[in-house]
Amino acid sequence: MKILYVITSTDVGGAEKALLGLVRCMAKNQQVKVISLKPLGKIGVQLKETGAQVVSFNMKGIGLQAVGRLKREINSFQPDIIHAMLFRAIEYTRLACQKSSCKLLTTMHFDLSKKNLFLRKMDSFLKHKDFISLAESKNTFNFLVQKQKYPKGQVFLIQNSPEKYLFFNDLSIRNTMRSHFGYTTQNCIFLSVARLVQEKNPQLLLDAFSQVFQKHPSARLVYVGEGYERQKLENLVQKKNLQRAVLLAGEQKNINDWLNMADVFVLPSVEESLPIALLEALKTGKPCIASAVGDIPLWVKTGENGCLVPPRRKKDLVKALSFCVENPLLREKMQKDSLKKAEKIKDSIEEHQLLYQKIMEESFHVKTLN
């Protein structure tokens, strides 16, 4: 089987991590090629390590000329399946496949409802080219069918999931990490694993934490991730005199270690579909404070395994953070509830493998697998 993956970027993000997991698996026994429209990021480097062929178009703007290059790549590689991820890669690949008989699969990996009307209309106009439109969350599935008018028989749900064996609860890792960074049992550590961009609301989290820290000086906040908001965060840390309480750790490979170190995972995003980072946190047994957007309310229940908060509501976020600091025994119960929730996470890589095989055997039917 020859599989061509097309993705907008290979920076660190949920879609990129999902692609990396797929390629790690598929490249073992199949011929796999990956095309990144933008310059290769850190995930791109890891993709090369899988043995797959990786090509970057090094796009820095809209770059519609990439459609012609995609056509040439498709004609040269002759894939059995093309799988495109993220908006620009999906639309460009749809255009490149207009006159071909390629079996094109697409996965949004973002909240399409937040795109402007023109882009949503473009998506609706080109959707017919998909052989199957994959939804990584129930929220995306419903939007595609109800609002974008995708035929139900075209949309198939494979929910996001972390790589199977990479995330687990481990007390020894927790103790080692906390000792390394000088955290004690008295510290309640909040951890955010996300790109430092406006959609993830890192500044709101810092503002809320600064209020909590005034009352609870043993609280700590750690950001794992990079992005254009970093400089603003650094300035705010200095301005609010939070240097000893806040760690901007940057991008990290060993996310499981950082999750085990923490007491509570926090994701105050403005928009999400089904964030892989949240599912990783559940697999390590973290209580979760997260915005009530996308599919997050299906995985986080206030009072059970964390707290749901309205997006952009600092007051509610402060309350949730304070509640977790002040109730260590309840955090232990929430940890157990998160681990129970994690047992319901399906392996999306296995589901993709089965789907690809069904397509090759020409035995795929949405109703038989969905």
What's the total count of β strands? Answer: 13
The residue fraction in helices comes out at: 40-55%
Shape type: elongated
CATH second-level architecture of the largest domain:
3-Layer(aba) Sandwich
Look at the structure and name the CATH superfamily of the largest domain: Glycogen Phosphorylase B
Order of helices and strands: EHEHEHEHEHEHEHEHEHEHEHEHEHHHH
Tally of individual helices: 16
Q: What is the total domain count?
A: 2
Q: Any chance you could write out the topology, listing elements then pairs?
A:
Layout: E1 2-7, H1 14-26, E2 31-36, H2 42-49, E3 53-56, H3 65-77, E4 81-85, H4 87-96, E5 103-107, H5 117-126, E6 132-135, H6 138-146, E7 155-157, H7 171-181, E8 188-193, H8 202-215, E9 219-224, H9 230-239, E10 246-248, H10 255-261, E11 264-267, H11 276-283, E12 288-291, H12 296-299, E13 306-309, H13 314-326, H14 328-342, H15 348-360, H16 366-369
Parallel strand pairs: 1-2, 1-4, 2-3, 4-5, 5-6, 6-7, 8-9, 8-11, 9-10, 11-12, 12-13
